[in-house]
Design a protein that fits this description.
714 residues, alpha+beta, Elongation Factor Tu (Ef-tu), domain 3, 6-stranded mixed beta sheet, 26 strands, globular
């Protein structure tokens, strides 16, 4: 229990093994909740006493199997055995390796179940917790000598041992393994970049008298390079250094403060609370949303007003912005991905009109606050007003929200049941749906998904909504967003025979109201998370017309019919590439004085016995320069070639070195010496390097400096 809140006497049940000399194991705990403890220590009897009972399933298993710990039971031994096989160690041989083996076994199980439930590693919320669990397991794997990705190997064991009780482990095994592998590769990349920096900083710390890694340095490694704090601390301890944790935590808190400030809404007000003068009065009003059945509500009292700073006021004059709370409202407050409604609040008696630009939550259980800009008249407390949602925008949003449900069901049908929602945006002009999947969705898959959704639209199936108990709704197969908190009663939105989801948003009456559905983009937004963007209704029609017009412009320009347009483009591309090659070859021949390597102007300069060819040409691209360099290199037999070309006010240069000289003359070194003269830089292989520059007027100076640059390398 905490310092305050429900509490009571507690009974603890222990099991004593053998003669009673073995350690006792607490297997059960009962708390008899009788009182409410106040901050001053006062105990007040609870109106409804209860018993909070908790039994340790794994501890009971250990007792029944006569094992010393949970890890010795058949729940964990298959996992520990697999870890031992991967690491080449045996459980029970060494205390230190045993600790790491237990961490890997326990964390791999937690990881597998979390991913099976739809959690994806990320830097936010539950995804961040999962990432920390996974990286701790990976860190202990490295303690065991596992340098290659290994954690995904544990999934097969869990699917085999626990798949009967949890079939989702087998159904989603491939998805789980891919998610873990991707995260392991990401962590390896983090360590590849961050570990050398960490080692350098630890070396510096060891040179100081305190032998302590500064907290701000540890935070930079964590924040910039992604090295986990635990890893920093462990690595430092291994080398005999400590970490200033207090300073690290201060830097961490400063980062959190900065993030909170940056997340502020409307210039710093999102995190700012409303200053409610009479909380009890507003609680009595409650949050009465009428928007499921109507977009206009008349005769509504204004129950609270706030200025732009969220302080209570009695009125808002024309031109002012602020917030208004109504006794009831048809305006939807952003939730579940659906954006807030917009519209008007008017008072016909006074001529007041205020435009609703968004909504905000005052507090749970209180009326929602409408963010308004008063366009005429004065909006005052206790006014009786009419609230009007922009019905055109609301209808567009409804179309997109129901289409999102259809899209979700179609994705699961085409890609597999591992697909789970990872985020969404439902706006009047578009919808965006993020989902768990581990590879780009192919064009063929997108076409199937789009076709399935449009088939459901053509069926014009009635969309049903009902309020049910959360338990019944989920038991009936309704899709719930993992990690979302639901009350005892939930709203269930169904397209019978196709989709059932828990959803508090607004929807069309029948799928035919959506009109049409078109996918406009598919992309990746994070490891294991894909995004589809789509449009519906007249927006989809307009998009189709734009695409058709663009196609018509293309076929008109090609002087070809649509059915042969692609073939025509491919033929033109082939012809263009062929022509470009021929032009390049001609330019190279011209640059060589008609084609003969060693022609006039190409005579080599002797630099300490090495032949150097320098050449300035015009309007040669990279490919042509490479070809020219190869030709000159072949012609000279043994030597170094430096060529520069001015192209559209910029410099392109190449350096080529014959194979017999690369042991002492590196083309990359020549480029690094010469490129700065023309305002550029570059690099390459020992036998060939290239660079760009922005000072074509310095080309002659650069070529003149080439002998000295070569001499410095010999």
């Amino acid at each position: 229990m905490g310092e305050t809140g429900p509490c009571g006497r507690c009974s603890e049940i222990y099991f004593v093994r053998g003669t009673g000399t073995d350690p006792e194991i607490e297997i059960w705990n009962n708390v008899f909740m009788e009182f409410e403890r106040s901050a001053d220590g006062t105990l007040t009897p609870l109106p409804a006493p209860c018993i909070d009972t908790g039994m340790g399933l794994e501890r009971i298993t250990a007792v029944l199997q006569n094992k010393q710990s949970n890890y010795d039971t058949d729940l964990f031994m298959p996992l520990l055995t697999r870890v031992g096989e991967l690491a080449g160690v045996k459980y029970g041989d060494n205390d230190q390796t045993d600790i790491s083996m237990r961490v890997v076994a326990d964390h791999s199980r937690a990881t597998t179940f979390l991913i099976a439930d739809g959690v994806i590693p990320s830097n936010e919320w539950r995804g961040y917790v999962l990432r920390k669990i996974m990286r701790r397991a990976m860190r202990h794997g490295k303690h065991l000598g596992l340098t290659e990705p290994f954690l995904h190997e544990m999934v097969a064991v869990l699917a085999r041992e626990m798949g009967d009780a949890y079939p989702e482990l087998r159904t989603n095994r491939d998805m789980i393994e891919k998610t873990i592998t991707a995260e392991e590769n990401r962590f390896d990349a983090v360590l590849k970049d961050g570990l050398p920096r960490l080692e350098t900083e630890i070396t510096k710390a060891l040179e100081s008298s305190a032998r302590t890694l500064p907290g701000d340095v540890a935070f930079r490694l964590y924040d910039t390079f992604g090295v986990p704090y635990d890893f920093i601390e462990d690595t430092a301890a291994t080398r005999g250094a400590s970490v200033d944790r207090e300073a690290f935590e201060r830097a961490m808190e400063g980062q959190r403060d900065k993030a909170r400030a940056q997340s502020a809404f409307g210039g710093g007000k999102k995190g700012q609370e409303f200053a409610v003068a009479d909380d009890a009065a507003l609680s009595g009003v409650g949050d009465q949303f009428e928007g499921y059945t109507s977009t206009t509500v008349s005769g509504v009292p204004v129950v609270a007003l706030f200025d732009e700073g969220r302080q209570p006021v009695d009125s808002l004059a024309a031109g002012a912005t602020g917030f208004v709370a109504l006794a009831k409202t048809p305006f939807y407050l952003e939730a579940g991905g659906q954006v807030s409604d917009s519209g008007l609040i008017i008072n016909e008696a006074t001529g007041m009109s205020a435009r609703v630009e968004g909504l905000a939550r005052i507090r749970q259980g209180l009326p929602r606050a409408h963010r308004v800009r008063v366009e005429s008249g004065t909006l005052a407390i206790r006014d009786i007003v009419t609230a009007q949602v922009d019905s055109e925008l609301r209808n567009a949003t409804r179309r997109n929200h129901t289409a999102t449900h259809l899209l979700h069901a179609a994705l699961r049908q085409v890609l597999g049941t591992h697909v789970k929602q990872a985020g969404s945006l439902v706006a009047p002009d578009r919808l965006r749906f993020d989902f768990v999947h581990f590879q780009p969705v192919t064009r063929e898959e997108l076409d199937r998904i789009e076709r399935i959704v449009n088939e459901q639209i053509v069926k014009n199936t009635a969309v049903s909504t009902e309020v049910r108990s959360t338990e019944d709704a989920i038991a009936s197969g309704a899709m719930a967003l993992f990690g979302e908190k639901y009350g005892d009663r939930v709203r269930v939105v169904s397209v019978p025979g196709f989709s059932v989801e828990l959803c508090g948003g607004t929807h069309v009456s029948a799928t035919g109201d959506i009109g049409s559905f078109q996918i406009v983009a598919e992309s990746g937004v994070a490891a294991g998370v894909r995004r589809i963007e789509a449009i519906t209704g007249m927006g989809a029609v307009a998009h189709m017309q734009e695409q058709r017009a663009a196609l018509q412009r293309i076929v008109d320009a090609l002087h070809a019919s649509p059915d042969v347009a692609v073939e025509t483009i491919e033929r033109l591309q082939t012809d263009a590439k062929k022509a470009q090659r021929e032009i390049s070859q001609l330019k190279t021949k011209l640059a060589m004085g008609g084609g003969a390597a060693g022609a006039a102007g190409d005579q080599p300069t002797d630099v300490n016995g090495v032949r150097l060819i320098r050449k300035r040409v015009a309007d040669l691209d990279k490919d042509a320069l490479r070809g020219l360099a190869d030709s000159l290199k072949s012609g000279v037999g043994s030597g170094v070639v430096v060529i520069a070309s001015e192209n559209d006010g910029k410099v392109q240069m190449v350096v080529a070195v014959t194979p017999d000289l690369t042991a002492k003359v590196k083309a990359g070194a020549m480029v690094k010496a010469l490129a700065p003269i023309v305002g550029g830089g570059g690099g390459g292989r020992p036998d060939f390097a290239e660079a760009g520059g922005k000072l074509p007027e310095k080309i002659d100076e650069m070529l003149a400096a080439a002998p000295d640059a070569l001499k410095s390398l010999l």
